[in-house]
Design a protein that fits this description.
Layout (H helix, E strand, L loop, with lengths): L3 H7 L7 H9 L13 E6 L7 H5 L3 E8 L2 E8 L10 E3 L15 H4 L8 H21 L3 H12 L5 E7 L4 E9 L21 E7 L8 E6 L1 H6 L17 H37 L3 E4 L6 E8 L2 E8 L10 E11 L2 E7 L10 H25 L4
Length: 382
């Protein structure tokens, strides 16, 4: 789907060019873009000598802004409105003045299909492959960066973008963006109900200069994965330790993500078992429970003619994270709401079975209910 701003820009082009741009901007391609940052078209104009208003509106050249390795490539794309059956020409960034991809080896240019709307995407994809090879050639001049690269390639990242910037003397900052191939299918579907797009994780590593020991890293999660993990604050990647190679760090982050998926999947099954154990032991007392995520169950209990509800809230990372118990009086209000107390400090072990946890929870309530009843009377609204 093309967003309104892009549609307005596309409509400025010759009608034979529009399908290429529409496909380029509306079909995500992880061979071109590894992040959610969009491709952008700027500086569109017509190369026609005739300056009539009609021809001015039929643009045939533009600057393509490509998010690449956390930087922006600005490539000029030049069609010829008088001969649109021919492939476009490209002018690359001035900083990459020595980037001369072998055009004869770029199949999508040699075999340009002007009737295929995917043709421009194919050309850009191939050019970026050559651009990566061009950047990798710079690494050959530095032994430290060579070690980082060899270790990273050994881990076989699904996709990779890399830029080695030049400095006044030698090489400067290295930015590397890598797709982390993790199987996210183990995440329960209820955690991504709104279908916010494909699952994915991308790791960015920045080396300020080849000999730097202060290497920075940042992990980017797709909205669906971030939501499933409980927010960005729930997953903290380790610092890049001095002496560590990029490949080792990549493997560490990948293992961390895989473990997180496992914990979420196991947590769902454990919560399900916990709720099932309560239903099995005390089915008649169950008022309600969450049938989707199994994160909550409420029961109506009675002790010496005192009725109260007992609620268990189970966290996302249960059983590693301890549940919360909530007692609520049926009779007494505090500030015009049912008198309630929450408990998070009680005997607990994540190794207990669901049946054992139910028995322990029942024992806790029996040991606590007398004091709760007194408190509900003493602190209730008068």
């Amino acid at each position: 789907m093309v967003v309104p701003d892009n549609k307005e820009i596309i409509n400025k082009f010759d009608f034979l060019i529009r399908p290429y741009l529409d496909y380029l901007l509306s079909h995500p391609n992880d061979q071109i873009n590894l992040t959610s940052d969009p491709l952008r078209i700027t500086n569109c104009f017509s190369g026609c000598i005739n300056s009539s208003t009609e021809n001015q509106m039929k643009c045939d050249r533009f600057t393509l802004k490509i998010p690449y390795a956390q930087q922006i490539l600005s490539w000029q794309v030049i069609f010829d409105a008088s001969n649109l059956k021919e492939p476009p020409d490209f002018i690359f960034d001035a900083e990459d003045h020595d980037f001369h991809p072998p055009l004869a080896d770029i199949n999508s240019l040699v075999c340009w299909d002007w009737q295929n709307r995917e043709s421009l995407v194919a050309v850009v994809t191939e050019l970026l492959e050559h651009y990566r090879a061009y950047q990798l050639e710079r690494i050959d001049s530095n032994a430290t960066l060579q070690k980082h690269l060899r270790s990273l390639l050994a881990e076989r990242p699904a996709s990779m973008q890399i830029i080695v910037n030049r400095a006044e003397r030698g090489l400067g900052t290295l930015n590397c963006l890598m797709k982390v191939a993790v199987d996210f299918t183990g995440i329960p579907t209820y955690l991504v109900p709104d279908n916010p797009g494909p699952d994915g994780a991308t790791l960015h590593v920045c080396i300020p200069y080849p000999a730097s020991s202060s290497i920075q890293a940042q992990l980017y999660l797709s909205p669906s994965v971030e939501n499933a993990f409980g927010g960005s604050s729930k997953l903290r990647i380790p610092a890049f330790q001095p002496g560590m190679l990029m490949g080792d760090y990549f493997a560490t982050v990948k293992g961390l993500l895989e473990n997180q998926v496992r914990l979420i999947s196991e947590g769902y099954e454990k919560r399900k078992d916990y709720v099932a154990a309560f239903i099995s032991h005390m089915g008649k007392a169950v008022l309600e429970y969450d049938v989707q995520s199994f994160s909550k169950i409420t029961l109506l209990w009675e002790w010496n003619d005192f009725f109260f509800t007992f609620t268990v809230e189970l966290p996302l990372y249960f059983p590693m994270d301890q549940p919360t118990f909530i007692l609520k009086s049926v009779y007494h209000n505090q500030n015009k709401k049912p008198y309630t107390e929450k408990y998070s400090d009680f005997p607990y072990s994540p190794r207990w079975s669901g049946n054992e946890m139910v028995k322990r929870a029942s024992a806790f309530v029996l040991a606590t209910i007398k004091d709760f009843q007194k408190a509900s009377v003493n602190h209730s609204d008068k």
